[in-house]
Every structure is written in structure tokens, then in C-alpha cells.
Design brief:
The chain is α/β, with parallel strands linked by helices. The chain folds into two domains: 143 residues, Carbamoyl-phosphate synthase small subunit, N-terminal domain (Glucose Oxidase, domain 1, 3-Layer(bba) Sandwich); 210 residues, Rossmann fold (3-Layer(aba) Sandwich). The protein has a ten-stranded mixed β-sheet, with helices on both faces. Strands 1-2-8-6-4-3-9 form a seven-stranded mixed beta barrel. It has a two-stranded parallel sheet with strand order 5-7. The longest helix has 23 residues. One of its GO terms (biological process) is 'de novo' pyrimidine nucleobase biosynthetic process. It catalyses: L-glutamine + H2O = L-glutamate + NH4(+); hydrogencarbonate + L-glutamine + 2 ATP + H2O = carbamoyl phosphate + L-glutamate + 2 ADP + phosphate + 2 H(+).
């Protein structure tokens, strides 16, 4: 297809002219600025970005093409891709197709020759905005964009409709799917876990009937306020089983224990956020992809939750632990993919917590025999 001029327009009336690639459709969504230097395939296929147009600030995107090992889902649900320069030659031996062909097959539009760093500065100054990739930046296009109502059912769109297994021979873990990444399942697989993945709407009773050793609340898209239906489930399982929560799951874990959430003034979408563990001073370089955070003001008099991790740059609360139950969570993505694997010890520690709780339960049972 011959290159054609297209436009990225924002709801405040700003327009950026560029060249289209991928699908040639008109598409709209919430604009997300991704600062990661690598991992565009993982970012594009991550369900946390459902409904978003992703703008990559790295100067050139597409050099390694698309390969079979870097999918985080098989049916990406983003609305568009914005880049400064698109690589047309795949230089990686594992690349099976170009980024342009990949997006074209998926029906996702892209636009290149955009000054994404100027775009990032603009969004930093104005705050989050809706955006569209269009053929003409006229008043009709802007009127349609301003009238667009963004959906509030992103988790419902991406969560599995039915439970399914990821078989293993070790610890039995239930994963509640709010929009999970394949790399999370890979991390549990290498730890010899037997997984059952269940829908976001699953009740605490149903989960407990599966007799798991532990429960994981996955990351996912959207405003946590739109997923409050999961709070009774979280309250119903945290006192009975070890619980690990990640991303959106972490925000919901906090809400189930009396905290509130808010939108970040400067959102976290990148791979190099330094996070400090409060108890030890340990610093991890972590992968983030979130627009919301737990409001620290709601934790000041909270008797249930203890802050475990803080973002070094802006002091965002990045981790919480329950004071009475074997339950905790992190805002960042411990499995990385893309990004550093500094924080994968969070998953290892969850294995250790499960083993410790099982050992304690065994000793309690022996004492009463």
C-alpha cells in the first residue's frame, strides 16, 4: 500500500500530520505515552492497554519485527500505534513479520513521522486526552472525537469467559483474570505451579471450592472504580488463602481494604521506574503500565494495610501488605516482559508464603489430632 498522509488529532484541537501504516481505518481511544526503549510487541499485545492509542517515544520502532515469543495475548485490543520513525526492515533473526504487516493483519492503524516527544510534552502539560487517527483533521473529525464516550467495561471485554487450566504438578494456584499477560503464566510455569485461570466475575465461594494453595489477582485495563464488583470476592478469600495482587488487581485489593484510588497526574508507562522496598531499602528497576494509583491519603489512618514499596521519583505507593492476613500486592509488573526482571523475586516470595502457610496449617492440624 502506498504511504498516505494521515493525522493524529487530540480532543483539545491539536493535530499532528504524519504517514499512515498498518490498517487504514479511522480509530479513536485514550492516548497513552509509552517511554520504554524496547518491547513494543509486548506492549501492543498487553491487555492492560485495551482501548488505547499507544505513542512510543523511542526514536525508531519496528527493528526487531514481530516474533512468536513476545505475545502477551493473541488478540490485541489496542486502538492504534504512534511512532516517530517506523523501521521497514526486520533485523532480528526471530522476526517473522514487520510491525506494519502485523498491525494490518490485526486491523489496527498506525501513524509515523510524528514528533512523539513533542506529543509527550503536550500531554504532560494538558493531562490525559482522547485521540483519533484520521484521514482529515477537519472540524467533523474533532467533533466526533469530543463526543466519543470511552467505555467502562474494559475488564469485561478481555477477561476469560470460562475457567481454563494451565496444568502443572506443584502448587495449586487460582489466577483471577482481569486482563492477564502470558508472561505471568510463564513465570508460574517455571515454578512448577498448577494453574486454574478464572473470570473476573468469579465468586469467593467458587474459588475456595477449587481448593487452591494461593490466589493471584492479575493486572488489567481501565479505572479500578469500574471493577468494584470484584471487591466482595477479594474480601472473601484474603483471610483464607495467600493472595498476591498485581496492577489493577493490586488497586482492587487496596479498595477491598478501605483504600481509595486516583488518577496519576503523570502516568506511569515505561520500563525503568525505580521502586524502593521500605523494609529493606532494596531498589528494583520495574516495568509499569498504569494510569491510576492508590491514594496515599486514604492509607494514613488505615488499620488494615501497610505500605511496602514506594516509587523513588514521585513517591507513588507501589506496594501494600495486609497487616493480619497473608495477602499483599504490587502496582508494578513483577514479571517484566518487557523490562527488567529485577522484581521477579515478588513471585518467588509468593511461593515461599504459600509453603509457609501450608506448613503452618499442617502443624495446626497435627496439634489437634
Amino acid at each position: 500500500m502506498n504511504p498516505m498522509q494521515r493525522y493524529l488529532i487530540l480532543e483539545d484541537g491539536t493535530a499532528f500530520a504524519g504517514t499512515g501504516f498498518g490498517a487504514s481505518i479511522v480509530s479513536s481511544g485514550e492516548l497513552v505515552i509509552q517511554t520504554g526503549m524496547t518491547g513494543y510487541q509486548e506492549t501492543i499485545t498487553d491487555k492492560v492497554n485495551t482501548g488505547c492509542i499507544i505513542a512510543f517515544t523511542v526514536p525508531t520502532v519496528g527493528l526487531v519485527g514481530v516474533n512468536r515469543d513476545n505475545y502477551e495475548s493473541i488478540d490485541p485490543s489496542i486502538r492504534g500505534v504512534v511512532v516517530n520513525e517506523l523501521a521497514h526492515v526486520t533485523a532480528h533473526q526471530g522476526g517473522k513479520m514487520s510491525l506494519a504487516d502485523f498491525l494490518d493483519q490485526l486491523g489496527i492503524p498506525g501513524i509515523t513521522q510524528i514528533d512523539v516527544r513533542a506529543l509527550r510534552r503536550h500531554i504532560d502539560a494538558t493531562g490525559p486526552q482522547k485521540a483519533s487517527i484520521v484521514d482529515a483533521a477537519d472540524e467533523h473529525a474533532f467533533d466526533q472525537l469530543r463526543a466519543l464516550v470511552l467505555p467502562h467495561n474494559q475488564v469485561q471485554q478481555v477477561s476469560t469467559e470460562r475457567p481454563y487450566p494451565s496444568p502443572g504438578t506443584g502448587r495449586n494456584i487460582v489466577v483471577v483474570d482481569f486482563g492477564l499477560k502470558h508472561s505471568l503464566l510463564r513465570e508460574f510455569a517455571v515454578r512448577d505451579c498448577n494453574l486454574t485461570i478464572v473470570p473476573a466475575t468469579t465468586t469467593a465461594e467458587r474459588i475456595l471450592n477449587l481448593d487452591p494453595d494461593g490466589v493471584v489477582l492479575s493486572d488489567g485495563p481501565g479505572d479500578p472504580e469500574d471493577s468494584q464488583g470484584a471487591l466482595p470476592m477479594i474480601s472473601g478469600i484474603q483471610e483464607h488463602l495467600p493472595l498476591l495482587s498485581i496492577g489493577l488487581g493490586y488497586e482492587l485489593f487496596a479498595m477491598a481494604n478501605g483504600a481509595t484510588t486516583k488518577r496519576l497526574a503523570h502516568e506511569h508507562h515505561g520500563l525503568n521506574f525505580a521502586v524502593r522496598e521500605v523494609a529493606t531499602g532494596r531498589i528494583d528497576i520495574t516495568s509499569h503500565d498504569h494510569s491510576f494509583t492508590v491514594d496515599p491519603a486514604s492509607l494514613e489512618h488505615n488499620e488494615e494495610l501497610l505500605i511496602t514499596h514506594l516509587n523513588i521519583l514521585d513517591q507513588t505507593v507501589e506496594g501494600l501488605r495486609h497487616r493480619r492476613f497473608p495477602a499483599y500486592g504490587v502496582q508494578f509488573q513483577p514479571e517484566g516482559a518487557p523490562g527488567s526482571n529485577d522484581a521477579d523475586h515478588v513471585l518467588t516470595e509468593f511461593m515461599e508464603l504459600i509453603d509457609a502457610e501450608k506448613d503452618k496449617a499442617g502443624k495446626e492440624a497435627t496439634r489437634y489430632e
